[in-house]
Automatic annotation (TrEMBL):
Its EC number is 4.2.1.20. Pathway: Amino-acid biosynthesis; L-tryptophan biosynthesis; L-tryptophan from chorismate: step 5/5. Belongs to the TrpB family. This is tryptophan synthase. InterPro entries: Trp_synth_b-like (IPR006316), Trp_synth_beta/beta-like (IPR023026), TrpB-like_PALP (IPR001926), TrpB-like_PALP_sf (IPR036052). The keyword Lyase applies. GO terms for molecular function: L-serine hydro-lyase (adding indole, L-tryptophan-forming) activity; pyridoxal phosphate binding; tryptophan synthase activity. Residues 78-415 form the Tryptophan synthase beta chain-like PALP domain. Keywords: Amino-acid biosynthesis, Aromatic amino acid biosynthesis, Lyase, Pyridoxal phosphate, Tryptophan biosynthesis.
Length: 454
């Protein structure tokens, strides 16, 4: 029998996260205050986020940051996660490529998001906060945050993108089971929400609208901090447990990845898997290729513009230097709710500019076709988001076949799709469509981006 799973023991769970900012040859430009447009300090950021996360966000000197023992202890409830060699998928593709995936779908909440929810809530608790708030798209982050808040005795209020709430009602039930209150965004409970609904009564919501509402709640409620499940540097930092484990597990498999692939919403599962491997490209000249798979309907990495832009619809967040489609970009209602975000984050954007990685665009139908093949070969129904990584992996594996070249491909299975079965039903019934974005749409949307010289 061939060895398929490479497992670590609890004692091998990393003791430190890897902070790629310290090793980047060009550091990301600083976030700017949305009103004064001056660079923001960690202290400025700590009005919205926990002080520790604010510090981590801007840390360009420490490559390794200790994981608090209490956080490692919570990690050990579900980590380490398996690295799996996808023999059945390789066989179905008849490819000489060796395909590995890091399976972040094995925890009961079903995605990688919990890796950052736990430390974010831990730091809030340590710093004396009593409440946390956030936005969620498909509901994976909201579910993870609700659980993490419950283990530290914090109250959680979650704004869920309205369309996602309708598509995935069970995720709201999960959040409420963990004790969180859940509201569809845009809602009438915040000024930002009211403004959006007044402008556009049928707005189906986006991560941008939900972030505006959550930040407004955090800044108007005492001892309440805002938390974010993607995009920001400290979130990708926490997610590096994925890649650090995978590095040891690839060693157990006796191979090193030629290509590392992950789907891309705001970059946290991508950064989490990729950064620990990318450090060897930066520091030792290794030549691994890093590919971020985004939906064709939200193509910020390949067709966005590098600009200072807001992270949310209302313009409450710091201005971030990033590849963006414009902060009020309204992506099509694809089922991969976690990938419907207009911007790429500061670290990733700089890494693209410096040619350490690149994006590819995956049409919705190709993503589900890939997910179906993966389900039927490997026996795991992937999250619609993760299907994008699988589709990109299949493209590479077929390319390797054409070239008659053995190579090692590693991708992140960021979550399972068991609560997304309506999406699979629609695909099977032939009701899903591709949504391409026209150049003129992108151009006109970018005209709303603030005019700041970079
Ligand atoms: C949220 C989510 C994503 C996208 O977010 P990233 O920060 O880009 O990782 C991808 N996959 C799953 C399963 C998610 O829940």
């Amino acid at each position: 029998m061939k060895q398929k799973k490479f497992l670590l023991q609890e004692k091998d769970i990393p003791t430190q996260w890897y902070n790629i900012q310290a090793d980047m040859p060009t550091k990301p430009l600083p976030p700017l205050n949305p009103t004064t447009r001056e660079p923001m300090s960690a202290e400025d950021l700590s009005r919205i986020f926990s002080a520790e996360c604010s510090k981590q966000e801007l840390d360009c000197t420490n490559a390794w940051i200790d994981i608090p023992e209490e956080v490692r202890d919570k990690y050990s409830y579900y980590r380490s996660t398996p690295l799996v060699r996808a023999y059945a998928l390789e066989e179905a593709l008849d490819t000489p490529a060796h395909i590995y995936f890091k399976n972040e779908s094995t925890n009961p909440l079903g995605s990688h998001k919990i890796n950052s929810a736990i430390p974010q809530c831990y730091y809030c608790k340590q710093e004396g906060d009593t409440n946390v708030t956030t936005e969620t798209g498909a509901g994976q982050w909201g579910a993870a945050l609700s659980y993490a808040a419950s283990i530290y005795g914090l109250s959680a209020a979650v704004y869920q993108v309205k369309i996602s709430m309708q598509q995935k009602p069970y995720r709201s039930s999960i959040m409420r089971t963990f004790g969180a209150t859940v509201e569809g965004s845009p809602s009438m409970s915040t000024r930002a929400g009211k403004d959006i609904i007044t402008r556009e009564p049928n707005h189906l919501g986006s991560l941008g609208t939900a972030i505006s509402e959550a930040i407004e709640l955090a800044t108007t409620t005492p001892h309440c901090k805002y938390t974010l499940g993607s995009v920001l540097n400290h979130v990708a930092l926490h997610q590096t447990v994925i890649g650090l484990e995978a590095e040891k597990q690839m060693e157990m498999a006796g191979e090193y990845p030629d290509k590392v692939i992950a789907c891309f919403g705001g970059g946290s599962n991508f950064g989490g898997l990729a950064f620990p491997f990318m450090r060897h490209n930066i520091l030792e000249g290794k030549k691994t290729e890093f590919i971020a798979a985004e939906p064709e309907s939200c193509p910020k990495l390949t067709r966005g513009k590098f600009e200072y832009d807001f992270g949310d619809e209302a313009g409450y967040t710091p201005l971030l230097p990033m590849y963006t489609l414009g902060h009020d970009f309204k992506p099509a209602n694809i089922h991969a709710g976690g990938l419907r975000y207009h911007g790429a984050g500061m670290i990733i954007s700089q890494l693209i500019r410096d040619n350490y990685m690149h994006g590819v665009d995956i049409p919705q139908l190709e993503s589900f076709e890939a997910g179906m093949l993966f389900a039927r070969t490997e026996g795991i129904i992937p999250a619609p988001e993760s299907c994008h990584a699988i589709a990109a992996t299949i493209r590479e594996a077929l390319r390797a076949k054409e070239a008659g070249k053995q190579e090692n491909i590693l991708f992140c299975l960021s979550g399972h799709g068991l609560i997304d079965m309506t999406a699979y039903d629609s695909y099977i019934n032939g009701d899903l469509h591709n949504y391409a974005v026209s150049d003129s749409e992108i151009k006109s949307n970018l005209s709303a981006v603030p005019d700041i010289k970079i």
